[in-house]
UniProtKB/TrEMBL annotation:
InterPro entries: SPL (IPR049539)
Family matches, as Pfam families: SPL (PF20903)
Protein name: Radical SAM protein
Superkingdom of source: Bacteria
Amino acid sequence: MITDQVSVSDTQTRSPRLWIPERVLFTPAALDEDWGQQILKRVQSLNLPIEELSQNRLKGLRGESERDTYNIAKRTLAVVTAPPSSFKLSPIPPSADWQFHLAEGCPAHCQYCYLAGSLSGPPVIRVFANLPKILENLANYEQQGKTTSFEVSCYTDPLGIEHLTGSLAKCIRYFGTRTNAHLRWVSKFDAVDGLLDLPHNGNTRCRMSVNAAPISGKFEGGTASVASRLNALRRLALPQERGGGGYPIGLVIAPIIPIDDWQMHYSRLFEQINEALDFDCNLTFELISHRFTPGSKEVLQTWYPQSKLEMDEAKRSVKRNKFGGTKYVYEKDTMKALRSFFESEISRRFPNAEILYWT
Ligand code: SF4
């Protein structure tokens, strides 16, 4: 609950952006899990159309074209169990030591989506009913004598589905009980009321992904506005005695794109951030320039055939990873100009904030 010491923007909060799926599918295995039953109760209380499947495989989600398949999948929530392979975690530098997943798929429609090409099949939003087992497994990855960090937003926007699952709150509570493990999540949604009173013990860093207005307005369909995300972040960061969540917070500025007048547009974004975070807080920045791979470009072009997002290989530099994969990033001089602008703006405006990485 926000108290008297709030900014004007706190009092002007609109209803949060909530995704409502057209259908919710439950596999038999998901219904056998206590956490699956908890999700069932939530979606029943929202009067959503529920289908109990007779088998554990998801079928019938394809339309006549890739675009139809996209539309069907993005309106569907499937409650399933995470496969055994998800109990073997992968590292996720530079964001965190390890990644784990409470869901795969995202209800938003960003035309540069990071999931394109990383998840196979229709982009249905699958949430995992065996979350307690997924959390239990994390202790095996905690390193002795140091804090181990875990990222939970690599394959989903965990806040975007929180009203349907409660899974992010479950993760935050779990990490609140650990002495040497930290949780990190990031979102473009804003429904944070249910997170403010959780016993997080400072072990969760909540981040919002933000961008300059022309980029956010054009390419980030189905998300909360940047102003709403910043207001949500403010509420997460405000001390609990001021009605906030008292969390460490972060901003992920991504994907950074050198649009016309980019310095002016990103300066305006920094002004908005300044206004929203006008109090002392534990703040980090992560800076990610736009990139694409041949695979992600191909998928994005079927999902968003009319998109004006620039993905011209001729204007980019090629970056190869150690597995032989190819990425297209901005050319050296552009990267240098962007990086130096962001680093100097942040150190000037937010001298106490830490920049975790530029990529
Ligand atoms: Fe993709 Fe993230 Fe946008 Fe969701 S919020 S559509 S995961 S880029």
